[in-house]
## 1
Amino acid sequence: MTILAAANAPKLAVMAVAGLAAAGVIVGAVSLTRGPDRDLSVLPRTVAARLPDPDGGERRLWVQRDEVTVAEWNRCFDDGGCGFPLPVRPRTNPAAMPATGLSYPDTVQYAEWISRRSGHPFRLPDLAEWQTLAADVLPEEPDPIFRDPSLTWASSYLVAERKSRALRPTGGWSTSPAGIRDLDGSVWEWTRDCYAGSQGAIDPDRCPAFWVAGEHAAAMPFLESDPARGGCAVGAPPAHLGMRLVSDREPPRAGS
């Protein structure tokens, strides 16, 4: 988990969200299922992406092609791994609609469940990974309206593209060159990076907020699941909160 202070915030339009929760999130080690008891049918479809390494080389990251869907989330609930079911909207296919209304602890529950059931470790991406994966499909940052640094938030708000906040079925937005879908959609995705604000160093297990990524990056209180309802200090809040998992190892295939 990376802790990002305000001075290290990304260049994308950033919203600092008011009312950060004071409690912490403790993410423990996951016990992976081995042998015949593991269930590979829960594995999502992933694509291999190449990311730069700090040493100047490249590394591979296996990325979930689509955001976690309502059907995938409800399977986790039915298996006892997730705390609540998601409703199925009328005239929609739950296997083709992104799971939304998720807080950071909800995403941790799901990642731990699928890692345990499949016997393969999954995690949330960090913010830098997400931005690299999405760079080819996100719109270019427009020139600011105001040059005064104190009005940066106003420029970001006024020049931001007024994209539809409606949910679309998976695959309804752009596909990246690596084959990852909907990174530029109306669902902002949780990352594992802690937002420390002006506090600087902070115990990662007691982080009050985490970065979510979409058309811009936003620091969200870790218990927030509905950004339109929650307070936002700067700019317009994300439309929906969902998730996409990654793995540092190639996932197994059925029969392996």
Note: The domain at 3-20+42-247 is CATH 3.90.1580 (paralog of FGE (formylglycine-generating enzyme)).
## 2
Amino acid sequence: AYGAEDFWFGLGQEPFIEAGCRVTECYATHDRQLLPAERADAILWHLRANDKSLPEVRSPHTFYVFWMIESALYTYADLNTYNGVFNWTMTFRLDSDFPRPYGRILFSPNVSAKTAAPKNYAHGKTKLAACLVKALQTHMEVDVYGACGTLICMRKDDKSCREMLERDYKFYLAFENSLCVDYITEKFFNTIKYNVVPVVYGLGYERTQIPKGAYIDVMDFASVQDLASYLLYLDSNDTAYNEYFRWKENGYRVFDQENAVNKQAFCDLCERLHEAEDVTAGIRKIEKYKFLELVQDECSNVVVAEPLKFRGTIWIE
């Protein structure tokens, strides 16, 4: 998946043990020569992999898992082709059989409560917003990075770019490229870890456990001008601006796709395999993701049907 042969989880049994899974008797592999496909308990299949092949003969023993974290707009495939193939889904949708979002923000009792003295998160910041939105530029100063702008911060230097963002900017425009329910990507989760306020444009924030006071939602404003006016107000009022960071002082912690979030999905898959009964009972009809252009619309779920309840070798395609 996107260059990660282990789907950012790991291979063998060790990752299940290290992740603290309740059931650890599973073994993940991408080596098709390790054992015949019909002996695999589950096959994890990525729609956008270079090799999309599946075993020519399907074993009644094997569960097929549809894996996808891209939006409906970028599947580059007709999912109707795969009707009657998959038992389970592992996608960014929170109602997937094994939800695998890009991140979560959860209350963590191990994180200390409020700091001794309130921090002024606006201190030292000299710029308002960074990203690419021409409409906002008519109302306020916006620095544009990348192909559409004049400023450069290379992806290979992501950490230093984020640190610069935290040091210099008050806001970051974390706009998704698709409006799909629960499609909240690294644009948000890679930014929220730093002390800068994300201005978001996407669907599904209200369905998550992300504190409402952690971000500014474009959809809460009637116009771009209203949004710009509010950002300028926060720029002039440090007390109001600092309220967007109180969640960090109240025991919340960010989990991104490279740690607990991804591990939990694989732990759940392993556990379900040890509970499973009949592989044929849960084969689903796959529907085409629907990327609808209007804000009030949403992408449909990948599958139609209730999750099936399912042992231990996971073959990663």
Note: Helices lie at 14-18, 134-137, 158-168, 186-192, 224-236, 238-242, 260-273.
